[in-house]
Amino acid sequence: MNIRGLIYTGIDGWGKLASLLEQYTVQGVFILVDENTANYCLPVLLEHCPRLKESHVIRIQAGEEFKTISTTSLIWQELSDYGALRNSMLLCLGGGVITDMGGFAAATFKRGIDFALIPTTLLGMVDAGIGGKTALNLNGLKNQVGLFAMPKGVFLFPEFLKTLPERQLASGFAEMVKHALISDRVHYNELIKCNLLKDKGAESLILRSASIKVGVVESDPHETGRRKTLNLGHTIGHALESYSMHHDSEPLLHGEALAAGLVCEAFISMRVLGLPESDLQSISNFITWHFPHYRLKPSACNDIIAYMLKDKKIDSPGKINFSLLQSIGKSVVDQYPGEKLIRESMHFYVNIEFGFFS
Amino acid sequence: MNIRGLIYTGIDGWGKLASLLEQYTVQGVFILVDENTANYCLPVLLEHCPRLKESHVIRIQAGEEFKTISTTSLIWQELSDYGALRNSMLLCLGGGVITDMGGFAAATFKRGIDFALIPTTLLGMVDAGIGGKTALNLNGLKNQVGLFAMPKGVFLFPEFLKTLPERQLASGFAEMVKHALISDRVHYNELIKCNLLKDKGAESLILRSASIKVGVVESDPHETGRRKTLNLGHTIGHALESYSMHHDSEPLLHGEALAAGLVCEAFISMRVLGLPESDLQSISNFITWHFPHYRLKPSACNDIIAYMLKDKKIDSPGKINFSLLQSIGKSVVDQYPGEKLIRESMHFYVNIEFGFFS
Questions:
Q1: pLDDT in tens, A328-337
Q2: ipTM score for this prediction
Q3: Nearest C-alpha neighbor of B286 from the set B173, B168, B184, B167
C-alpha cells in the first residue's frame, strides 16, 4: 500500500488538490465541515480552490459527541438529497471527527464513493488523517464501528493550525510524543526542546511525525503486527476518554486522555519490560509540563477497567492487550500486564500531581 | 476472487459449516436471526451444530422495513454488550435482509469481524447471499448504504425452503428467471417447464441459478462491467419496490417488483435492442402466470421515475442506466433509453392485465 504517495503538503499540495478535484464535476464534489471549520477553514479552501464555491457543503456540529451513527445518517441523507452519485467525491475538511466519520460515510455510501482528507487539527495531520482507518463511536465507546478505506489523497496544510485553540494543538502534540516514543529517541529529544506553538521549525517536526505514522502503517496496513505499536498509551487513554465523556461536563480531549495513558503505560513498561526509570521520569515530567493533570478519583478505576475490557483491540475475553516500551524509541506489542498492575499505574499517575517525580 | 470456493451445499455443507465454526470459541460465535428464522430455521441449525446452543442469538424483527441503520445499531450494540471481539464470527441465518444487513454490521463492527451466511429464502440462495454485497436501505431508498465484504462461507441448504411461504418462494423465483434471461436460454426453457414448489429437480435448478450468479460476480466483483448484467429488471424493479414500500399497506416483495420490472425492461429491450417480439411475449406470459399483477396507477409513474433518478447505479445526473436484453440469454449493459420509453414500458405492463398478449 503506497500511503506516502497519497499525502501532499505545502504549496505543491494546493496544486495537487486542485488537479485531483478536476476529475469530478463541481456538483459531484461535496465538502464536509463542522461549525468551526466552516468558519475558519472553508474560506481558506475556497480561496485556493475557487471552483468549489459551487459545490454543496454539508455542515455538522463540532465535537467528539457527534461522531455517531446519527450524524452519519444525516451525512448520507444529505448526500442522497443533493444528488451524490457513485462517482462523486466527499472532501472532508476538519479534525479527527470529520476525517474519521466522513471517511466512513463515504466508504459506505452506495457501496463506496471517493473521499479525500484535509485535516485541520494537529491530531488529524499527524494521526487520524493518515492510515485508512474510518470510525464512529457507539454509545460512547470509541471507534467501535468503522472500516479500513483509503482516501484518494490526504492534504497537510500546517497553515490551518493557526486557527486552532491552544488546547486542541496540545491534544495533537500528544500523538507526536507517542510517535517519537515508539520509534525515535532523537525526534523525542527535539520535541522536548521545541515550543510547538511558536517555533519556526514546527512544520518540519509535524511532517516528521506524520512520516513516522506513514512508515508504520505502510508496513502493516491492517494492524496485524507492527501497527499495534501505535497503540502505546491508547489502551488506558481510550478508556479514560470514554470515562470522561460519560462523567465530565467538559470531557478530556483525545490527546489529553492519551497523555495520561502514556504516563500510566510508561509505568507499566518499567515494571514489565524494564523501561529505565530515567525514561519514565523524562516522560512523566514532559507530559506533566504540557498537559493539565486529570483528577482521577480512585472510584473511577473499576469503570475505566470495564471500558478497557470493551476495547475493540481485545482478541481474547478478559485479556487487556497493551503495546509498551522497552526504552524511549523502542516498543513491544502484545503485552498483558494484568489488572493489578493497571491499577497501580493509575495510582502512579494520580500521585504525580503530588510531586512524586519533581 | 474465488467465490465458488466459499459456497457449500448438501450434506457436505453441514460438515463444512461445523469445521468453519470450530475456528471460533462458542462464545465467539453470534447468530443473527429474525422472528421467522428463529422459529423455523434456528432449530434445524442447532440440530446440525449442537455446539452453537451456547452461542448468543441476536433476534431482530422480520421484514424489509427493518433493513435500516436503526436495526444495524441494535445489532452492533448487542455484539458489543455480549462481548464480541475482533476475532468473533457473526453467522447470519435468514433471507436477504438478514444476510445483507448482517454482513454490513459484521464488516463495520470493530473495523470488520468475520461473518458467514446461511440464506434461508430462495432469493437469498440464488442472489442476495452470493457476491459480497452488503447493504441497508436509507429512508426507504433501497441499498443506498453498504459496502463490498466477503463472507467466510455461504451455505446453501434447500431444505430451509420447505419453511417458506409460497409468496416468498415466488419472489426468489423472479431472480432465477432473471439469471436465465441474461445468460442461458436452455436454463430459461427448463424454468418455464418446472414447478418449483413440487418438482424433485428443483434443487439442481437452484444450484444452476446460484452458479450463474457466481460466474458473473467472479468475473467482475466490483461491478465495473459484466456484473451490471445482473441489473436486468432492477432499474424499474427497485423503483417500484421503493414506491410500493411508501404507498402500499402490504408492499411488494423484492421479487414481485422485479417481475414487473423484467416485463417493462423486456419491452424497452424490444424497442432499443430489437429483442424479438416472441421473446417479449414469452417473458410476459411466463411472468403473468407466476406473479400477481401490480395495479400501477398512471399517477405513480412520476414518483417511480423520481426513485430511478436516485438509484445508486446512476453515474451521470439524470441519465437512468439500464441493463437490457438483445435476446433471451444475451444481455447488454449501459443502455439509456430515456424517460419517454420508460413511461411507455410501464404503460405496456399496465395493459398486459387486459390481455394484450393473451
A1: 999 999 999 9
A2: 0.86
A3: B173
